[in-house]
Amino acid sequence: MTDTSLVVVTGGASGIGHAIARRFSTAGWPVVIADINADAAAAVAADLGPEAQAHALDVADDGAVAAFVDALEDDSGPIGVLVNSAGLLQNRTDVAGGAMEEHDRIWAVNYRGTYLMCRAIGPRMAERDGGAILNIASINSYTPLPLPAYNPTKVAVDGLTRLLAAEWGPQGVRVNAVAPGFTLTPALQARIDSGHRDRAGMEALSTLGRMVMPDDVAEAAYFLCSDAARAITGVNLPVDCGYLPAISYNSYPS
């Protein structure tokens, strides 16, 4: 795999996806921003430079995903890296109180969208004997949190990552994930501004006493997709400022 292969970043118009797209572009890779927000995707691609492309895409739409991948490889060449960053957040709720419409859309994007993109691109990578896929999981993959749609989708993404690493590894395709903690994306900032999330409270939960920045996740994602991680597959790497060890350590009774 070389830096002439395409890097596809779903959800690349904002937040973690934007940071990952920028990291690859800075390293010289041609990046494709695939996002449901066509205008925002075009703005990001324009900022990244002439090697970047923007495409409108709903990752939960089977036909749209298949058509996107077919057209992209026909027009621009092989996809060497896939980053599945498209995702929806959820505010705290309980099982009885959560709206099913929200539940189903979160599952459609967070899990189904990741699955469809992997299904469309992974076998092509396997036929070419190489490639890297990076899924965006979460600290929700490791622990129950009061997000009854979002939380299980990230458990499922973790499981899918390991399953695909085992299935496609013999053909040279590596599949990994990152598990961000509370990350200060525009989407989370909007929830802080609206009073649905407490920044100070989130910062206090980590051992490092701060929130994760999108660029923190981008660095980990880039490493896992690079040749520096050529012996790593099937992992879900926490990028959480120490949230996971903190919640266990701090819960020990005195």
Description of the structure:
This protein has 254 residues and is an alpha/beta fold. It has a single domain (6-249), classed as NAD(P)-binding Rossmann-like Domain (Rossmann fold). Helices cover 46% and strands 15% of the residues. It has nine helices and seven strands. The protein has helices at 15-26, 38-48, 62-76, 100-127, 150-168, 186-193, 199-204, 214-225, 243-249; strands at 6-10, 31-35, 53-56, 79-84, 131-136, 173-180, 236-239. A seven-stranded parallel beta sheet has the order 3-2-1-4-5-6-7, with helices on both faces. Strand 1 (6-10), helix 1 (15-26) and strand 2 (31-35) form a beta-alpha-beta unit. The radius of gyration is 18 Å and the shape is globular. The N and C termini lie far apart (52 Å). The relative contact order is 0.14.
Count of extended strands: 7
CATH topology: Rossmann fold
- Whole-number total of structural domains: 1
Any idea what the radius of gyration is? 18 Å
Shape call? globular
- Main beta-sheet annotation: 7 strands, parallel
Taken in chain order, the helices and strands follow as EHEHEHEHEHEHHHEH
Please state the average pLDDT score. 96
What CATH architecture do you see? 3-Layer(aba) Sandwich
The N- to C-terminal Cα distance equals 52 Å
| Helical content class | 40-55%
What name goes with the CATH superfamily?
NAD(P)-binding Rossmann-like Domain
